[in-house]
Amino acid sequence: MSNSNLEQLISAWLDGQISASESEALQQQLRQSSESRATFRKLTQLDAVIREIADTDQDVSITKRPITFATWSLAAAVVTIVTFVATLMFFQPNGEPKIAKITGLGGSLQWTGNGGQVIKDLVVGTQLPGGTVEGMAPDSWLELEFNDGSKIEISGNSMLTFSDHGQKVLRLKGGNVSSDIKPQPVGKPMLVHTRSAILEVMGTQFEVATRLASTTLNVSEGQVRMKRLSDGNSVDVSAGYRVTTSADREMSPVRVPESVHHWKSQLNLGSVGTYGTWLPASSQQAARLKGISYVPSENPTDILYMVGLAVSRSDHSPVILKPHSRFIVHGRLESPNGVYFGIRMAHPNGEFAGKFRADKPAPGLNDQHDFEVVFNLSDFELDPCVRDRKDELPSRPEGLIVTGVWCFTPCRAKDIANSITASLEVTEVELIPPADAELY
Amino acid sequence: MDDQSTEIRSNSNGDERYEAFVRLLVEHEPHVRSFLRGLLPTWQDVEEVTQEASLIAWRKFSEFEEGTSFGGWLFTIARYEAMKHRRRAARSPLIFADDVWDLIAEEASKEETQQDYREHLEVCLKKLAPAKRDLLLKVHAPGVVMREVASKSGKSEQAFYKVIQRLRAILFDCVSKAIAKEGV
């Protein structure tokens, strides 16, 4: 059999067009010839890769080598300028068409281009040609605006691949994305792929959260079509409704539940929705989250021990902050150190509404180094990383939805070098609304 | 290939384990799809088995041995799941006989070169005329039924498939030459 004939048979098999006699001829050839099997493997791999590329519509690659920036040894302001200039100078990925720009960010983030180029020092205004953005910590968030004005935002530990070659295609590999999408061209809806579903979006506001085996969609405006990959069933989800798709449950939209004003972490139930090292309960200690060390790029002389908790998870009731509410944090500190507590807020339509933070000096510790810290809403101020957007963000968190909280304690790198350690464990976080708060 | 695997032991916490797993999965999933494409007759089958294999890998992640190849481990799971999937499939010219299937599966499971393949393919795709490239990507996009595109093309189905075959052959030739050149 000639190579050309063999390739035609393999192509017919790949296209589902092979007849019984052709299939028999192909199989006979594959039995007899290792060279034919090699050709078969190469052509099937080619087909798979074409489909991967067609799926994300990323038909171009970035081949520039990775850029590394100078060490962060200068003052933060200087470093920011250096980074900005360096980004402008070096971050020109081969003339790729820029499809979106960064309009807001905070926390530890990185962008990876198609050819493997990695940029960690992202700044507002950077234009991107597509690729993968990744939030590396619970306080991470990044907002992108496409050229047509559509906005998407990832928060917390999330990983999202995005492209736009006439049709926007997102791949949410983990975490959360909220979107405000302008009307899309007819016949070219924005596609959002997760591991278990595909969403078709014409122009609307929605939020998606994905885990390994399930995807939850909340629609706040317009309509989104959700297709479950396991069986191809699809459902249209309207504003005010949510649906969770996984192979083992019915896929029917339900009304987004009424909001609540009280919330309490449930670490005894496991580590879902948390950031930190989860430790189960023992006879002496409650289940807890141990902080993960993290060096903030804006202040590399500090090491933060940080934990995070999702609050208004997409499959639970929205938690709205009432005026005069309080957060009470229970935990354990290795040594007397300040405790910093942050809250991440969203508008009822899912749109990002800022981050607020309250700082407390070292709390009193008992013999076991346990602490309790109360954070009143009046203690909170806009987080430093969003202060440059203070004119467009709400000045106070009251009335907004709490999507996540994080807590950290800082330690100087030089103290670590001198064996002075700091660690943080959190056993419980509770939000108490005003009526209940008066009891405390 | 498995440089991240060594991080797993220290990541004993549930979410860290989950993240370590997702990172490994993101790295290896395209290779698994390529591997499965030669074992399963449709892309939908490939997607289904890849998803099933990913879930099983997550459930069994605690059994994964540090220092061994995550890709190889995932291939083994995927191959077994593909075999189960194949058994459920109805008889058709697209389903190969057991001996042929085993030969292909055995040889394919030893290959780990798909990433190079993708880079070359991206370059070769750029060399195609935009209309041809768009057509090729269109018929390979998720959910697209090639027969429907063929019927709307104004060409006979047979002529349409010939066009796709020719484009595939051009790409195959281009990629093969690029790989051969790299090997020199």
Question: Would you kindly provide a brief summary of this structure?
Answer:
The complex is a heterodimer of chains A (440) and B (184). Chain A has six helices and 29 strands.
Describe the structure in your own words:
Chain A is an alpha+beta fold. Chain A has 3 domains: 3-56; 76-255, Jelly Rolls (Sandwich); 263-437, Jelly Rolls, CATH 2.60.120. Helices cover 16% and strands 39% of the residues of chain A. Chain A is built from 6 helices and 29 strands. In chain A, the strands form 3 sheets. Chain A has a 16-stranded mixed sheet that branches. In chain A, helix 1 packs across helix 2. Chain A starts with a helix and ends with a helix. With 184 residues, chain B is mostly helical. Chain B has 8 helices and no strands. The chains are: A alpha+beta (440), B mainly alpha (184). At the A-B interface, helix 1, helix 2, helix 3, strand 18 and strand 19 of A face helix 1, helix 2, helix 4, helix 5 and helix 6 of B.
Give the end-to-end Cα distance of chain B, rounded to a whole number of Å: 23 Å
- According to DSSP, the number of beta strands of chain B is 0
CATH topology label of the largest domain in chain A: Jelly Rolls
Fraction of residues in β-strands of chain A? 35-45%
Q: Round the mean pLDDT of chain A to the nearest integer and report it.
A: 79
Main β-sheet of chain B, in a few words? none
Instruction: Tell me the number of helical segments of chain A per DSSP (H or I, 4 or more residues long).
Output: 6
Tag the structure with descriptive keywords.
A: 440 residues; Jelly Rolls; 7-stranded antiparallel β-sheet; 6 helices; 16% helix; B: 184 residues; mainly alpha; globular; disordered N terminus
Summarize the helices and strands and which ones pair or pack.
The complex is a heterodimer of chains A (440) and B (184).
Chain A: H1 3-14, H2 20-32, H3 34-56, H4 76-90, E1 100-106, E2 109-112, E3 118-119, E4 127-128, E5 131-135, E6 141-146, E7 151-164, E8 168-180, E9 190-193, E10 197-201, E11 205-210, E12 214-221, E13 223-228, E14 234-238, E15 241-246, E16 254-255, E17 263-264, E18 274-275, E19 277-279, E20 288-290, E21 292-294, E22 302-310, E23 326-333, E24 339-346, E25 352-360, E26 370-376, E27 381-382, E28 401-412, H5 413-417, E29 424-432, H6 434-437
Helix pairs in contact in A: 1-2, 1-3, 2-3
Chain B: H1 14-37, H2 43-59, H3 70-88, H4 98-108, H5 114-127, H6 130-139, H7 146-152, H8 157-183
Helix pairs in contact in B: 1-2, 1-3, 2-3, 5-8
